[in-house]
Amino acid sequence: YARYNSNSAGIRERTLIAVKPDGVQRRLIGQIIQRFEIRGFQLVGLKMLQVSDELLSQHYMSLCKKSFYPSLLHYMTSGPVVAMVWEGNNVVRSSRMLVGNTNPAEAPPGTIRGDFCIHISRNVIHASDSIEMAQKEIALWFQSSELIEWECCDHGNFYQL
Ligand code: UDP
User: What pLDDT shows up at residue 42?
Assistant: First the structure.
């Protein structure tokens, strides 16, 4: 990162974003990627995968006692998911704001959930909810060799470098 100065550490923050099976089925991958791209965040990892029960049980470990957990697993394994890692200043918090409330009924228009879905059980996208969770989720979903460190040539349009 030699080209960035000492104030640039924060712009390397990363988060895990996943287009869930309903989002893939509904052909929303492109529109969802566009929301992150147009905001100025940088894509550093991307893949389509059929998620295993094992990965999901680790990913949603904190929810395993919830009544909706079995249907959540069924939903998340019902078809392919598109997993991504996005990078940028404050990307974890900003992504949660781009995505909107877990319950789409509470998500305002302009957010991804507020624009594209109706019910909490089919809310089209996942976004890590803290920097710590983002680090754990990225390590769970991606090999380090699948993450690309690259410099966007127009960084100066988004940051004071
Ligand atoms: N979920 C559900 N019913 C609920 C709560 C959650 O089906 O009552 C699902 C929903 O897909 C949600 C996921 O479980 O996105 C994970 O829940 P969490 O509370 O972690 O919300 P998120 O971080 O995805 O906004």
Answer: 97
CATH tag for 10-149 (out of 3.30.70.141, 3.10.50.40, 3.40.50.150, 3.40.605.10):
3.30.70.141
CA distances, 61 to each of 66, 72, 75, 136 (Å): 10, 12, 16, 12
pLDDT in tens, 2-59: 455 445 668 899 999 999 999 999 999 999 999 999 999 999 999 999 999 999 999 9
Q: Please tell me the predicted confidence (pLDDT) of residue 6.
A: 41
Distance 102 CA to ligand 1 centre (A): 6
Active site residue 126: yes
Name the binding residues for ATP.
Answer: 20, 68, 96, 102, 113, 123
Nearest CA residue ID for atom 18, ligand 1: 102
Label residue 116 left, alpha or beta by phi (over 0 means left) and psi (-120 to 50 means alpha).
alpha
Short-list 86, 158, 88, 89, CA closest to 127: 86
Residues 102-130: pLDDT tens digits? 999 999 999 999 999 999 999 999 999 99
Q: Which atom of ligand 1 is nearest to the CA of 129?
A: 23
